[in-house]
Protein backbone atom coordinates (compact mmCIF):
# COMPACT_ATOMS: atom_id res chain seq x y z
CA UNK A 1 0.00 0.00 0.00
CA UNK A 2 1.17 3.50 -0.79
CA UNK A 3 1.50 6.19 1.82
CA UNK A 4 -0.64 9.30 1.79
CA UNK A 5 0.42 12.14 -0.55
CA UNK A 6 1.91 13.91 2.43
CA UNK A 7 4.41 11.08 2.90
CA UNK A 8 4.89 9.71 -0.59
CA UNK A 9 6.12 12.10 -3.29
CA UNK A 10 3.80 12.45 -6.26
CA UNK A 11 5.23 12.12 -9.75
CA UNK A 12 6.63 15.43 -11.06
CA UNK A 13 7.39 16.51 -7.45
CA UNK A 14 10.39 16.11 -5.14
CA UNK A 15 13.11 16.64 -7.73
CA UNK A 16 16.77 16.37 -6.67
CA UNK A 17 18.00 19.56 -8.34
CA UNK A 18 18.61 22.92 -6.66
CA UNK A 19 17.16 25.52 -9.05
CA UNK A 20 19.69 28.10 -7.80
CA UNK A 21 17.24 30.92 -8.53
CA UNK A 22 19.54 33.49 -6.93
CA UNK A 23 22.53 32.53 -9.10
CA UNK A 24 21.08 31.59 -12.49
CA UNK A 25 20.33 35.18 -13.57
CA UNK A 26 24.10 35.87 -13.49
CA UNK A 27 25.02 35.02 -17.08
CA UNK A 28 28.76 34.73 -16.44
CA UNK A 29 28.17 32.34 -13.50
CA UNK A 30 25.90 30.29 -15.75
CA UNK A 31 28.40 30.22 -18.63
CA UNK A 32 31.16 29.07 -16.26
CA UNK A 33 28.99 26.27 -14.81
CA UNK A 34 28.05 25.17 -18.33
CA UNK A 35 31.73 25.04 -19.32
CA UNK A 36 32.64 22.62 -16.51
CA UNK A 37 33.27 18.96 -17.44
CA UNK A 38 30.60 17.79 -15.01
CA UNK A 39 27.80 19.82 -16.63
CA UNK A 40 25.05 17.73 -18.23
CA UNK A 41 22.31 18.25 -20.79
CA UNK A 42 18.95 16.52 -21.19
CA UNK A 43 17.77 16.56 -24.80
CA UNK A 44 14.12 16.95 -25.69
CA UNK A 45 13.05 16.25 -29.22
CA UNK A 46 9.50 17.40 -29.98
CA UNK A 47 8.86 17.32 -26.21
CA UNK A 48 10.09 13.74 -25.87
CA UNK A 49 13.01 13.22 -23.46
CA UNK A 50 16.08 11.19 -24.39
CA UNK A 51 16.16 7.93 -22.45
CA UNK A 52 18.82 5.26 -22.06
CA UNK A 53 18.32 1.85 -23.66
CA UNK A 54 15.88 0.65 -26.30
CA UNK A 55 12.35 1.87 -27.07
CA UNK A 56 10.78 -1.41 -25.86
CA UNK A 57 12.59 -1.42 -22.46
CA UNK A 58 10.22 -1.51 -19.49
CA UNK A 59 12.71 0.24 -17.24
CA UNK A 60 14.81 3.18 -18.29
CA UNK A 61 16.26 6.46 -17.06
CA UNK A 62 16.80 9.91 -18.49
CA UNK A 63 20.01 10.00 -20.48
CA UNK A 64 22.10 13.07 -19.73
CA UNK A 65 24.84 14.02 -22.19
CA UNK A 66 27.93 16.13 -21.71
CA UNK A 67 27.62 19.65 -23.08
CA UNK A 68 30.03 18.75 -25.91
CA UNK A 69 27.91 15.73 -26.90
CA UNK A 70 24.76 17.81 -26.85
CA UNK A 71 26.28 20.60 -28.93
CA UNK A 72 27.70 18.17 -31.49
CA UNK A 73 24.16 17.01 -32.35
CA UNK A 74 23.03 20.61 -33.01
CA UNK A 75 21.20 22.67 -33.98
CA UNK A 76 23.44 25.57 -32.91
CA UNK A 77 20.54 27.88 -32.04
CA UNK A 78 18.66 25.30 -29.90
CA UNK A 79 16.71 26.75 -26.96
CA UNK A 80 18.43 25.82 -23.71
CA UNK A 81 17.24 26.21 -20.14
CA UNK A 82 19.03 25.75 -16.83
CA UNK A 83 17.39 23.04 -14.71
CA UNK A 84 19.49 23.34 -11.57
CA UNK A 85 22.49 22.05 -9.65
CA UNK A 86 23.09 18.50 -8.53
CA UNK A 87 25.88 19.13 -6.02
CA UNK A 88 28.25 21.29 -8.07
CA UNK A 89 27.17 19.95 -11.44
CA UNK A 90 24.90 22.14 -13.56
CA UNK A 91 22.05 20.45 -15.46
CA UNK A 92 20.42 21.89 -18.57
CA UNK A 93 17.66 20.93 -20.98
CA UNK A 94 17.94 21.56 -24.72
CA UNK A 95 15.26 21.58 -27.38
CA UNK A 96 16.48 19.82 -30.52
CA UNK A 97 13.08 19.61 -32.23
CA UNK A 98 14.49 21.19 -35.40
CA UNK A 99 16.57 18.06 -36.15
CA UNK A 100 14.97 15.54 -38.52
CA UNK A 101 16.83 12.47 -37.24
CA UNK A 102 18.27 13.28 -33.80
CA UNK A 103 19.56 9.77 -33.05
CA UNK A 104 21.67 9.68 -36.20
CA UNK A 105 24.92 10.86 -34.66
CA UNK A 106 24.36 9.75 -31.07
CA UNK A 107 26.68 7.09 -29.63
CA UNK A 108 25.26 4.17 -27.60
CA UNK A 109 21.71 2.87 -27.09
CA UNK A 110 19.17 5.64 -26.57
CA UNK A 111 15.68 6.56 -27.65
CA UNK A 112 13.15 9.34 -27.38
CA UNK A 113 9.87 8.52 -25.66
CA UNK A 114 6.80 10.67 -25.16
CA UNK A 115 6.59 12.15 -21.67
CA UNK A 116 3.59 10.06 -20.53
CA UNK A 117 5.30 6.87 -21.63
CA UNK A 118 8.57 7.96 -19.99
CA UNK A 119 6.74 8.47 -16.67
CA UNK A 120 6.05 4.74 -16.47
CA UNK A 121 9.67 3.70 -16.88
CA UNK A 122 11.97 6.29 -15.28
CA UNK A 123 12.81 6.52 -11.54
CA UNK A 124 10.37 8.61 -9.50
CA UNK A 125 12.99 11.26 -8.62
CA UNK A 126 13.65 11.89 -12.32
CA UNK A 127 10.00 12.68 -13.11
CA UNK A 128 10.37 16.16 -11.56
CA UNK A 129 13.34 16.90 -13.84
CA UNK A 130 11.32 15.72 -16.83
CA UNK A 131 8.31 17.83 -15.80
CA UNK A 132 10.38 20.98 -15.33
CA UNK A 133 12.23 20.49 -18.63
CA UNK A 134 9.11 19.70 -20.64
CA UNK A 135 7.02 22.57 -19.25
CA UNK A 136 9.75 25.18 -19.85
CA UNK A 137 10.79 23.96 -23.30
CA UNK A 138 7.15 23.85 -24.37
CA UNK A 139 6.55 27.37 -23.03
CA UNK A 140 9.47 28.77 -25.05
CA UNK A 141 8.23 27.06 -28.21
CA UNK A 142 4.76 28.61 -27.76
CA UNK A 143 5.86 32.11 -26.74
CA UNK A 144 8.38 33.28 -29.29
CA UNK A 145 6.57 36.58 -29.94
CA UNK A 146 5.72 39.43 -27.63
CA UNK A 147 2.09 39.36 -26.45
CA UNK A 148 2.16 43.19 -26.21
CA UNK A 149 3.68 44.31 -29.54
CA UNK A 150 4.20 41.13 -31.60
CA UNK A 151 7.98 41.44 -31.97
CA UNK A 152 10.18 38.30 -31.61
CA UNK A 153 11.31 37.87 -27.98
CA UNK A 154 14.59 36.55 -26.50
CA UNK A 155 15.15 33.98 -23.77
CA UNK A 156 16.95 35.50 -20.73
CA UNK A 157 17.60 34.58 -17.07
CA UNK A 158 18.61 30.99 -17.88
CA UNK A 159 15.32 30.44 -19.66
CA UNK A 160 13.00 31.69 -16.89
CA UNK A 161 11.99 34.89 -18.68
CA UNK A 162 11.55 36.15 -22.25
CA UNK A 163 12.27 39.75 -23.01
CA UNK A 164 10.95 41.87 -25.86
CA UNK A 165 13.79 43.96 -27.39
CA UNK A 166 11.22 46.25 -29.04
CA UNK A 167 8.86 47.31 -26.20
CA UNK A 168 10.95 45.93 -23.28
CA UNK A 169 8.06 43.84 -21.91
CA UNK A 170 9.01 40.82 -19.78
CA UNK A 171 7.16 37.52 -20.18
CA UNK A 172 7.35 34.77 -17.56
CA UNK A 173 6.73 31.02 -17.90
CA UNK A 174 3.09 30.28 -17.21
CA UNK A 175 1.60 27.83 -14.74
CA UNK A 176 -2.14 27.31 -15.02
CA UNK A 177 -3.82 26.49 -11.70
CA UNK A 178 -6.53 23.85 -11.78
CA UNK A 179 -8.45 22.42 -8.84
CA UNK A 180 -8.99 18.69 -8.55
CA UNK A 181 -11.37 17.59 -5.84
CA UNK A 182 -12.86 14.57 -4.21
CA UNK A 183 -16.44 15.34 -3.16
CA UNK A 184 -17.23 13.69 0.16
CA UNK A 185 -20.55 13.23 1.98
CA UNK A 186 -20.25 11.38 5.29
CA UNK A 187 -19.08 7.86 4.49
CA UNK A 188 -19.51 8.27 0.74
CA UNK A 189 -17.51 9.94 -1.99
CA UNK A 190 -18.44 10.91 -5.52
CA UNK A 191 -16.66 9.58 -8.58
CA UNK A 192 -17.54 10.52 -12.13
CA UNK A 193 -16.95 9.45 -15.69
CA UNK A 194 -15.63 12.19 -17.90
CA UNK A 195 -16.55 12.34 -21.59
CA UNK A 196 -12.82 12.13 -22.40
CA UNK A 197 -12.70 8.64 -20.89
CA UNK A 198 -14.80 7.37 -23.83
CA UNK A 199 -16.50 4.01 -23.37
CA UNK A 200 -14.06 2.88 -20.67
CA UNK A 201 -15.19 2.30 -17.10
CA UNK A 202 -12.68 4.76 -15.67
CA UNK A 203 -14.03 6.82 -12.81
CA UNK A 204 -12.27 9.76 -11.25
CA UNK A 205 -12.66 12.87 -9.14
CA UNK A 206 -13.80 16.22 -10.60
CA UNK A 207 -11.45 18.92 -11.84
CA UNK A 208 -11.45 22.33 -13.48
CA UNK A 209 -9.35 25.40 -14.17
CA UNK A 210 -9.27 28.33 -11.75
CA UNK A 211 -10.68 31.44 -13.41
CA UNK A 212 -9.20 34.94 -12.99
CA UNK A 213 -10.46 36.59 -9.80
CA UNK A 214 -11.44 33.29 -8.18
CA UNK A 215 -10.08 31.64 -5.03
CA UNK A 216 -9.29 27.92 -4.92
CA UNK A 217 -12.31 27.31 -2.66
CA UNK A 218 -14.59 29.27 -4.97
CA UNK A 219 -13.32 27.37 -7.99
CA UNK A 220 -13.97 24.02 -6.27
CA UNK A 221 -17.54 25.05 -5.38
CA UNK A 222 -18.26 26.40 -8.87
CA UNK A 223 -16.85 23.41 -10.73
CA UNK A 224 -18.62 20.85 -8.54
CA UNK A 225 -21.95 22.64 -8.95
CA UNK A 226 -21.48 23.01 -12.73
CA UNK A 227 -20.48 19.39 -13.29
CA UNK A 228 -22.72 17.45 -10.89
CA UNK A 229 -25.17 20.00 -9.40
CA UNK A 230 -23.99 19.56 -5.81
CA UNK A 231 -23.47 22.43 -3.38
CA UNK A 232 -20.16 22.26 -1.50
CA UNK A 233 -19.38 23.62 1.98
CA UNK A 234 -15.94 23.16 3.51
CA UNK A 235 -12.97 22.73 1.14
CA UNK A 236 -9.74 21.25 2.47
CA UNK A 237 -6.41 21.47 0.64
CA UNK A 238 -4.57 18.12 0.53
CA UNK A 239 -1.65 18.26 -1.93
CA UNK A 240 -0.56 19.69 -5.28
CA UNK A 241 1.06 18.29 -8.38
CA UNK A 242 2.63 20.03 -11.37
CA UNK A 243 1.19 18.45 -14.51
CA UNK A 244 3.21 19.59 -17.56
CA UNK A 245 0.56 18.89 -20.23
CA UNK A 246 1.27 21.61 -21.06
CA UNK A 247 1.66 23.68 -17.87
CA UNK A 248 -0.97 22.83 -15.27
CA UNK A 249 -0.70 22.97 -11.49
CA UNK A 250 -3.20 20.55 -9.98
CA UNK A 251 -4.41 21.72 -6.57
CA UNK A 252 -5.87 18.70 -4.78
CA UNK A 253 -8.74 19.20 -2.31
CA UNK A 254 -11.43 17.31 -0.45
CA UNK A 255 -14.81 19.07 -0.68
CA UNK A 256 -17.69 18.44 1.73
CA UNK A 257 -21.01 18.10 -0.09
CA UNK A 258 -24.09 19.79 1.41
CA UNK A 259 -26.55 17.75 -0.69
CA UNK A 260 -26.82 14.23 -2.22
CA UNK A 261 -28.72 14.68 -5.46
CA UNK A 262 -26.52 14.38 -8.51
CA UNK A 263 -27.35 16.24 -11.70
CA UNK A 264 -24.59 15.68 -14.26
CA UNK A 265 -23.96 18.38 -16.81
CA UNK A 266 -23.98 15.80 -19.64
CA UNK A 267 -21.32 17.88 -21.32
CA UNK A 268 -18.02 17.17 -19.57
CA UNK A 269 -19.40 14.58 -17.14
CA UNK A 270 -21.33 11.62 -18.54
CA UNK A 271 -22.24 9.96 -15.23
CA UNK A 272 -21.45 10.28 -11.53
CA UNK A 273 -22.38 8.27 -8.45
CA UNK A 274 -21.67 7.88 -4.75
CA UNK A 275 -19.39 5.09 -3.54
CA UNK A 276 -19.18 4.03 0.10
CA UNK A 277 -15.83 3.86 1.84
CA UNK A 278 -15.78 0.05 2.03
CA UNK A 279 -16.22 -0.25 -1.73
CA UNK A 280 -13.46 2.31 -2.35
CA UNK A 281 -11.11 0.41 -0.02
CA UNK A 282 -11.85 -2.83 -1.89
CA UNK A 283 -11.07 -1.13 -5.21
CA UNK A 284 -7.87 0.38 -3.81
CA UNK A 285 -6.86 -3.14 -2.76
CA UNK A 286 -7.20 -4.18 -6.41
CA UNK A 287 -10.55 -5.96 -6.17
CA UNK A 288 -12.72 -5.47 -9.28
CA UNK A 289 -16.00 -3.75 -8.50
CA UNK A 290 -18.65 -3.64 -11.25
CA UNK A 291 -16.10 -2.87 -13.97
CA UNK A 292 -15.31 0.46 -12.29
CA UNK A 293 -11.68 1.45 -12.70
CA UNK A 294 -9.92 4.00 -10.47
CA UNK A 295 -7.27 6.49 -11.69
CA UNK A 296 -3.69 5.28 -11.95
CA UNK A 297 -1.44 5.80 -8.91
CA UNK A 298 0.66 8.38 -10.82
CA UNK A 299 -2.32 10.77 -10.75
CA UNK A 300 -3.12 13.06 -7.83
CA UNK A 301 -6.75 11.86 -8.21
CA UNK A 302 -5.67 8.44 -6.95
CA UNK A 303 -3.97 10.03 -3.91
CA UNK A 304 -7.05 12.09 -3.06
CA UNK A 305 -9.23 8.98 -3.14
CA UNK A 306 -6.74 7.06 -1.04
CA UNK A 307 -6.29 9.89 1.47
CA UNK A 308 -10.06 10.10 1.96
CA UNK A 309 -10.50 6.32 2.19
CA UNK A 310 -7.77 6.07 4.87
CA UNK A 311 -9.12 8.91 7.03
ZN1 LIG B 1 7.02 43.81 -27.19
Describe the structure.
The chain contains 7 helices and 15 strands. The protein has 311 residues and is of the alpha+beta class. A hairpin with a 2-residue loop joins β4 and β5. It is globular. The two termini are 15 Å apart. Zinc ion (ZN) binds at residues 146, 148-149, 151, 164, 166-167, 169.
Tell me the overall shape: globular
Task: Supply the number of helical segments.
Answer: 7
Number of strands: 15
Bound molecules: zinc ion
What is the string of helix and strand elements?
A: HEEEHEEEHHEEEEEEHEEEHH
Major sheet size, sense and barrel closure: 6 strands, mixed
Summarize the structure.
By secondary structure, the chain is α+β, with helices and mostly antiparallel strands. Helices cover 23% and strands 29% of the residues. The chain is built from 7 helices and 15 strands.
List the helices and strands and how they pair.
Layout: H1 27-35, E1 40-45, E2 48-52, E3 64-66, H2 67-73, E4 80-86, E5 89-95, E6 110-112, H3 115-119, H4 124-142, E7 154-156, E8 161-163, E9 170-171, E10 176-185, E11 188-194, E12 206-209, H5 216-228, E13 232-243, E14 248-257, E15 269-276, H6 277-284, H7 300-310
Helix pairs in contact: 6-7
The structure holds zinc ion.
Zinc ion (ZN) binds next to loops.
